[in-house]
Amino acid sequence: MSTVELTKDNFDQIVSENDFVLIDFWAEWCGPCRQFAPVYEAASERHEDLVFAKVDTEAQQELAAAFEIRSIPTLMIVRDNVAVFAQPGALPETALEDVIGQARGLDMDEVRRSIETAKEKAGEQ
């Protein structure tokens, strides 16, 4: 599957309509981004059941700011409308595969319970 270009206009729709979205925040001038691009593209071909998306941080500065992207490339994984992973840096193929495998293995009910517990504790302070 080829990657999808995310913009502020289609972001909410794509993320909410898909259970598992990988997002690569990148820019044309970024050397590590260009290095990571073929690794990301190859993974998208191996995992056709997942949505691989890209956000050009130069063209989509509002999106980059909304997610507080300070370093690129940054990889984010959103499952069931919950960001479950975000890390700057170009991942090698084996690390990307490992992250995808771990994200696939998450119990999203448990993740949501953890988020609620953290919110409750934050509210008590």
Count of strand segments: 5
- Report the radius of gyration as a whole number of Å: 15 Å
Contiguous uncertain segments of 5+ residues? none
How confident overall, as mean pLDDT?
Answer: 93
Specify the helix fraction band.
40-55%
- Order of strands across the biggest sheet? 1-3-2-4-5
Order of helices and strands: EHEHEHEEHH
Mind describing the biggest β-sheet? 5 strands, mixed
Q: Categorize the overall geometry.
A: globular
How many angstroms separate the termini? 46 Å
- Helices and strands: which structural class? alpha/beta
Number of helices: 5
Percent in strands: 15-25%
Task: Describe, in plain words, how this protein is organized in 3D.
This protein is of the alpha/beta class and 125 residues long. 47% of the residues lie in helices and 22% in strands. It has a five-stranded mixed β-sheet. The chain is globular, with a radius of gyration of 15 Å.
Question: Key features?
Answer:
125 residues, alpha/beta, five-stranded mixed sheet, 5 helices, 47% helix
Short summary of the structure?
The protein has 125 residues and is α/β, with parallel strands linked by helices. It is built from five helices and five strands, in the order βαβαβαββαα.
